[in-house]
Design goal:
Rossmann fold, alpha/beta, seven-stranded mixed β-sheet, about 190 residues, 16S rRNA (guanine(966)-N(2))-methyltransferase activity, nucleic acid binding, 5 helices, SAM-dependent_MTases_sf
């Protein structure tokens, strides 16, 4: 069961696609968002959730104060689930909240996206080729503002992402099989 951990939609159960996704565990999301809350980055933030799956990361950010969220998911079934979850979270929102779902590939979205975004999540399938992840990261640089944060979730067995010029990692944290990297503009 995937749910919103905290904020105005805390405990709301999210729908998940029947197959083809690997939702971030509640434990990892809770740890990640505790650190984000401590940074004060969420209130009023513009959030981009790439490889959104159920939309759990972007919608958790919305529940904790983000004002705009874009969920990018290519798989038709997962994009449909994102739309249902976005509607449920938006309905509960006590503040103006915009959640858009882009049902297209991440690279296609990035090639035409307009930023800046305050917070960007990349939670690709663990088997995503490293070259594709590197291309995604390189495309993000132009979407970053001076205080933006990029959070990349990978398998703990994956190599460190290839960081593009214009982005530098600031920390990483392992949670069992999951490794979370944080990066900022250079």
């Amino acid at each position: 069961m995937t749910r919103i951990v905290s904020g105005f939609a805390g405990s709301l159960t999210l729908k998940v696609p029947k197959s083809g996704t690997r939702p971030t565990s509640d434990q990892v999301r809770e740890a990640m968002f505790s650190a984000l809350d401590a940074r004060g980055i969420l209130e009023g933030a513009q959030v981009l959730d790439l490889y959104a799956g159920s939309g759990a990361l972007g919608l958790e950010a919305a529940s904790r104060g983000a004002s705009e969220v874009v969920l990018v998911e290519r798989a038709t079934a997962a994009a449909t689930v994102c739309k249902l979850n976005a509607k449920a979270v938006s309905k509960a929102a006590p503040h103006k909240l915009t959640v858009d779902v882009a049902a297209r590939s991440v690279q296609s979205y990035l090639d035409s996206a307009v930023g800046p975004f305050d917070l960007i999540f990349l939670d690709p399938p663990y088997d995503l080729p490293e070259a594709e992840l590197a291309a995604n990261l390189a495309s993000l640089v132009r979407l970053l503002g001076p205080d933006s944060l990029v959070v990349v979730e990978r398998s703990s067995r994956s190599p460190e992402p290839t960081w593009p010029t214009g982005m530098v990692p600031t920390r990483s944290k392992k949670y069992g099989e999951t490794l979370v990297w944080w990066a900022v503009p250079k």
